[in-house]
Write a structure and sequence with these properties.
The chain has helices spanning 3-33, 40-58, 61-72, 79-92, 100-123, 126-147, 153-161, 167-188, 205-219, 255-273, 290-304, 308-321, 331-338, 355-370, 379-391, 417-436, 439-444, 449-458, 468-476, 483-496, and strands spanning 226-230, 236-240, 243-248. With 499 residues, it is mainly alpha-helical. It has 2 domains: 3-143; 167-496, Neurolysin, domain 3 (Orthogonal Bundle), CATH 1.10.1370.30. The radius of gyration is 23 Å and the shape is globular. The structure holds zinc ion. The site of zinc ion has 4 residues, from helix 10 and helix 11.
C-alpha cells in the first residue's frame, strides 16, 4: 500500500469509528442516567451491533496493512498521525497474537465472570467466583506471553494501562510509599479524630444540586461544554472538547460525598476540555493514560479541593446553602472534618492518606497471582492479612474485602496502580507549579483559572500525544519521583494530627 493511500484510509477509518464511539458514548450515558430499567435488552442489542461494526473496522487485514505501512514510514508522517498509528498498533498487539476463537472465548468468560461476580459480591460468596477468577488469571498470563513473548506477562498488562510503567518502576514506587506511609497511618490511628458529625446531617438532594452548580462555577467549568447527571457511581465521559458529561450521586446524609465527586469528575472533564483544538476528531483526544487522568481529577479534588485555602473559600458558600446544618462550624473545624483520615475497608471511600495503601495491597496480590505465587483459592486470606498489616483493620467479609472491586471480574489486572500513580504525579506537578504560581493565594481568592491554564499548557493540551513519563518531564522538568507525594502527605497530615 502507498503511504498516501494508507494515511487517507487511516484517517477515514478513525473518523468513522469516532462517529460510532460518539454514538455509543451518548447511548451509554443515556442508559446510565435516564433510561428506564427495562431498556436494558434493547440497549444491549444495539450496543452489541455497534461494537461488532467497530471491531470489524479495527481488526481487519486492511487495518493491519494500513498500520504496517504507517509504521514502516513513520519518519515521513506528521507527529499526530505517527502517534495515532503507534497507539493503534499497540492496542492491536494482543488481537494480532491470539486467534479469533481465543478472543470470542475470552469475551464469553469475561461476561460470565462479571455476572457471577455481581451475585457473589451481594452474597459475599467468594467460592462461587473463584473458578472464574482462576481462569481469568490463567488467560491473562497466557495472553500476556503471546502478546509480548520477551516480557513478563504482568509487565505487559501494566504497560497497557500506564505506558512505560513496569514492575521495576512500580516496586520502587510502592516500596517507598509503604515505608513512609504505613508508620504514619499507624501513628495517626492513635490520635483523637476531629468531629465530622455536621457533614452527616440532612442535606436535601435538591439543595445539593444547586451546590453542585456553585462548585462547577468556582472551578471555572463552562457549562455550555459540560453537563452534569446523576448515577449510582460517579463517572465522566467525553465526546469532544465541547461535549463532556460528568455524573454524581447525592447522599442526603453526607455533604462531602457528592461535593468531592463533582470536583473530581469536574477535574476529569477539565482535562479533556483543555485538549488542543487540533486533537479534536483524532484518536488522540482525551487523556494520556488512566494515571494521568486520575492525576488531574485528584489535582482538583485533593490538592485544590481539600486544601485549607479551598475549604476556607467554600465554607461561606456552603453555609449560605445550608445555614442550619452548618451553623456555628468554624473554618478550622470544616478543614479538619473534610480531611479526617481513618483506615477503612473500601477503596473508593478511602481518604487521601490511606488511599494508596488499598492500591498497594491490590498490586502485591496481582503480582503474586500473575507469577503463580498465590492461588486464587488463598486470595481472601492474603487480602485480609495485608489489610491488617498495612491498615490495621479486620476484614469482616469478602463482600467488604476481595470482592469489592469490579476490575478483576472484567480481566483488568494491572489497572489499579494507575489510581495511586495519579496522586503521586499530582503532588510532583503541584510542587513545580508552586515555583511559578502563588497557588494558595489564587485558591484563597477563588481564582482557579490561572491554575487550570497552567495545567492546560503543561498537560491538558497534549491529549494522548505524549506518554505519562513525557508529560511529567514537560510539566516538572524531571523524571517521575514519588518523594513529592510522600512529602506532601507527611507534611499535611502531620500538621492536621499534631504529630
Ligand atoms: Zn477518577
Amino acid at each position: 500500500m502507498e503511504l498516501n493511500e494508507a494515511i487517507a484510509k487511516f484517517k477515514e477509518q478513525n473518523k468513522l469509528m469516532g462517529v460510532y464511539y460518539h454514538a455509543m458514548g451518548v447511548m451509554s450515558y443515556d442508559f446510565e442516567t435516564a433510561a428506564p430499567k427495562n431498556a436494558v435488552a434493547g440497549y444491549s442489542d444495539v450496543m452489541a451491533k455497534f461494537s461488532e461494526i467497530t471491531y470489524n473496522i479495527s481488526v481487519s487485514p486492511e487495518r493491519f496493512e494500513i498500520l504496517d505501512t504507517l509504521t514502516e514510514h513513520k519518519d515521513e508522517i506528521d507527529e499526530i498521525t505517527r502517534r495515532e498509528a503507534a497507539l493503534a498498533q499497540k492496542s492491536l498487539k494482543l488481537m494480532r497474537s491470539i486467534s479469533v476463537e481465543d478472543y470470542v472465548e475470552y469475551q464469553r468468560l469475561v461476561n460470565e465472570a462479571s455476572a457471577v461476580w455481581h451475585d457473589a459480591k451481594v452474597n459475599s460468596d467468594y467460592a462461587s467466583f473463584e473458578p472464574y477468577l482462576n481462569k481469568l488469571v490463567e488467560t491473562s498470563i497466557r495472553f500476556g506471553r503471546l502478546a509480548a513473548p520477551e516480557a513478563d506477562p504482568y509487565d505487559y498488562w501494566l504497560d497497557e494501562y500506564e505506558e512505560g510503567f513496569t514492575q521495576d518502576v512500580l516496586d520502587g514506587y510502592f516500596d517507598k510509599i509503604k515505608a513512609a506511609l504505613v508508620p504514619l497511618i499507624h501513628r495517626i490511628s492513635e490520635k483523637p479524630q476531629p468531629d465530622n458529625s455536621f457533614l452527616h446531617k440532612h442535606f436535601p438532594a435538591w439543595k445539593q444540586r444547586e451546590f453542585s452548580d456553585k462548585l462547577m462555577e468556582v472551578m471555572g467549568i463552562d457549562r455550555r461544554d459540560c453537563a452534569i447527571g446523576e448515577t449510582e457511581h460517579p463517572f465522566t465521559t467525553g465526546f469532544n472538547k465541547h461535549d463532556l458529561r460528568i455524573t454524581t450521586h447525592y447522599y442526603e446524609d453526607a455533604l462531602e460525598s457528592s461535593m468531592y465527586s463533582v470536583i473530581h469528575e469536574g477535574g476529569h472533564a477539565m482535562y479533556e476540555m483543555g485538549n488542543a483544538d487540533e486533537l479534536d476528531g483524532t484518536t488522540l483526544f482525551g487523556g494520556a493514560s488512566c494515571g494521568m487522568h486520575e492525576s488531574q481529577s485528584r489535582f482538583y479534588e485533593n490538592l485544590i479541593g481539600r486544601s485549607r485555602a479551598f475549604t476556607d473559600l467554600i465554607l461561606p458558600i456552603a453555609k449560605e446553602m445550608f445555614p442550619e446544618q452548618l451553623d456555628g462550624v468554624t473554618p478550622d473545624e470544616f478543614y479538619r472534618a473534610i480531611n479526617r483520615s481513618e483506615p477503612s475497608l473500601i477503596r473508593t471511600e478511602a481518604d487521601e492518606l490511606t488511599y494508596s495503601m488499598h492500591v498497594l495491597i491490590r498490586y502485591e496480590i496481582e503480582k503474586k497471582l500473575m507469577h503463580g505465587e498465590l492461588s486464587t483459592k488463598d486470595l481472601p486470606a492474603e487480602w485480609n492479612r495485608l489489610y491488617k498489616e498495612y491498615l490495621g483493620v479486620d476484614v469482616p467479609s469478602d463482600k467488604e474485602g476481595c470482592l469489592q472491586d469490579s476490575h478483576w471480574s472484567g480481566g483488568g489486572f494491572g489497572y489499579f496502580p494507575s489510581y495511586s500513580l495519579g496522586s503521586a504525579y499530582g503532588a510532583q506537578i503541584l510542587a513545580h507549579m508552586k515555583k511559578e504560581l502563588d497557588f494558595e493565594g489564587l485558591v484563597a481568592a477563588g481564582n482557579i483559572e490561572p491554575i487550570t491554564l497552567w495545567l492546560r499548557e503543561h498537560i491538558h493540551k497534549y491529549g494522548l500525544l505524549k506518554t505519562p513519563a513525557e508529560l511529567i518531564r514537560i510539566s516538572t522538568g524531571e523524571d517521575f519521583d514519588p518523594q513529592y507525594y510522600i512529602d506532601y502527605l507527611t507534611e499535611k497530615f502531620s500538621a492536621l494530627y499534631d504529630l
